[in-house]
């Protein structure tokens, strides 16, 4: 009876759970979460909180493996966070070593949170039976992962895949942008602000207090033409990112998660139209290619457990 | 003693060769080539020529497998050329079935020529020992292939990877272009013509007869400032394509072949500068990441033999 401790280190929350291997699946035994304050607290303080919340879910029992999901780029081979854009001060933090010391001799594995969500969606969610399978999460930023031959494709040093870092030149200013600067929730907020400062337009957003991805989404859902056009533009950029991913990986399925995906067709229809327009050959595009991710916020936690089970050979 | 017949169907030449398996490598026994005239002759006439040249290299001996390299997109599972931009009229041609009938009962395999060149460079050339390995060929168009876990990564339906079909928006006109419309040999010629028609400039090319990738290359090598700037721009677009490939695949090595790569630093330095500028983290960029391909024109032929050997399990 293999027991696995999974930890998901996010910018605003730390979550921990204990899973029991159950045939091909995982049985969630206990879970807990805490605010991480990782953006403001010291690295040491956050690591203490990780250890505390982990001990909270581990009862008086032996754990066989630990899996940790964290924002990248990180080095899963050495267990070091290289640099986390969402966690200032976390450059070069040897997280596996530190957590490993707290749980003496338990094999501990670190992996990019979006990669682990991809693994979870492939094993338990929207990617079941699809290979290659791509997962994309569109929220504050854009992340993702690729599954190939049933395993995570993470490249030479474990840094792949970073779909949010696909680069485009924007025709407005000729500058180079990351996909996540064009199509994420933060991007939707930022472009709305930028356009409102430049354009003469009517919009609910003009009188709104805070303009961010969420308020733009609400305005669009209320039928605000300006907000709709901002989201359409973001969706079209996302579609162009999808076109590139489809031509490079020829995936059997792509699952899209994250807060922005909850805008549904407002965001996804413009993306679909761009995909259909620019795809090289219809064979690249089976009818069920694009799907909504199934596991929600828990994907990273489940993925961490699945990954630790795979890496520790707890089959 | 396994014997393999390899065929490389190009737009201007058809090549055939017989290889003998020799431990891990391949021994070239005999080879021949003919003009293909595939752009002007009927499909039937070209297939007859393929069969003739194949029979020419096969002596009075039994062949164990046949590998065919052809331009894509093609379906390697069914052995059908879906559409070949360089071979008009070849939509839906069941090449494996037709060639298979000519060589009764010999297992025959079809694969994208750039994918096979990638396999050959990985096994025998610039990609030895590198995994993931990416191969890019920059000539009339841009093609490429990905090796992962020692095998060709060709996606769900065998359509991956098509790096020439990475899409960008050009800031000049706001239109969507394929990477091969921005950075291939044909693109270099086309952009030189377009810019000469619009700009007031001094250039050797103004008095040149035909302006194509080759004449622009010659002018650049002679120090022509305008030609140099056209090639620099193409190199920068190619660099942006590389940035995207590096972030998605985190390759251990990328080998670059094709006629345009022979321009060397004129084309590759601008690409390298863009890569260094936009790479997310230095870990993505080991010092020997970018290399020149080693096998030249024969990569497709060797790759076809290697692929047939793998697929037919002639290990």
The oligomeric state is: homodimer
* Helix segment tally of chain A: 9
Beta percentage of chain A is: 15-25%
Structural class label of chain A: alpha/beta
The largest inter-chain interface, given as chain pair and residues per side, is: A-B, 47 and 47 residues
Overall average pLDDT of chain A: 93
> Globular, elongated, flat, extended or rod-shaped: what is the shape of chain A?
globular
Which strand order do you get reading across the main beta sheet of chain A? 3-2-1-4-7
Straight-line distance between termini of chain A = 11 Å
Q: Give the H and E element order of chain A.
A: EEEHEEEHEHEEEEEHHHHEHEH
Biggest pleated-sheet summary of chain A: 5 strands, mixed
Q: How would you describe what is shown here?
A:
Two copies of one chain form a homodimer. The first copy, chain A, is of the alpha/beta class. Helix content of chain A is 36%, strand content 23%. In chain A, helix 6 crosses helix 7 and helix 7 crosses helix 8. The model of chain A has no long low-confidence stretch (mean pLDDT 93). Chains A and B meet through strand 11 and helix 7 of A and strand 11 and helix 7 of B.
Q: Which structural traits does this protein have?
A:
homodimer, 5-stranded mixed beta sheet, alpha/beta, 36% helix, globular
């Amino acid at each position: 009876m293999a027991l696995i401790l999974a930890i998901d280190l996010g910018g605003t929350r730390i979550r921990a759970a204990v899973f029991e291997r159950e045939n091909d699946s995982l049985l969630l035994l206990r879970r807990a979460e805490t605010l991480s304050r990782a953006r403001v607290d010291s690295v040491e303080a956050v690591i203490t909180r990780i250890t505390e919340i982990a001990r909270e879910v581990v009862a008086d029992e032996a754990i066989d493996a630990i899996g940790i999901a964290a924002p990248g780029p990180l080095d899963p081979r050495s267990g070091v966070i290289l640099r986390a854009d969402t966690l200032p001060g976390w450059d070069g933090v040897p997280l596996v070593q530190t957590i490993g010391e707290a749980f003496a001799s338990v094999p501990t594995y670190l992996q990019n949170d979006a990669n682990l969500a991809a693994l979870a969606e492939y094993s338990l969610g929207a990617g079941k039976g699809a290979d290659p399978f791509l997962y994309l999460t569109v929220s504050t930023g854009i992340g993702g992962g690729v599954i190939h031959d049933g395993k995570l494709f993470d490249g030479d040093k474990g840094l792949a895949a970073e779909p949010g870092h696909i680069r485009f030149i924007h025709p407005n200013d000729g500058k180079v942008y990351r996909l996540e600067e064009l199509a994420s929730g933060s991007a939707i907020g930022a472009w709305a602000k930028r356009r409102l400062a430049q354009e003469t337009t009517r919009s609910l957003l003009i009188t709104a207090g805070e303009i961010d991805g969420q308020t733009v989404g609400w305005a669009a859902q209320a039928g605000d033409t300006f907000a709709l056009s901002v989201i359409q533009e973001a969706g079209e950029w996302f579609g162009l990112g999808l076109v590139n991913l489809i031509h490079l990986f020829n995936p059997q399925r792509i699952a899209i998660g994250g807060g922005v995906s909850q805008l549904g067709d407002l965001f996804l229809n413009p993306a679909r139209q761009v995909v259909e327009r620019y795809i090289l050959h219809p064979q690249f595009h089976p009818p069920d290619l694009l799907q909504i991710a199934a596991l929600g916020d828990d994907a990273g936690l489940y993925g961490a457990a699945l990954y630790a089970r795979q890496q520790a050979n707890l089959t």
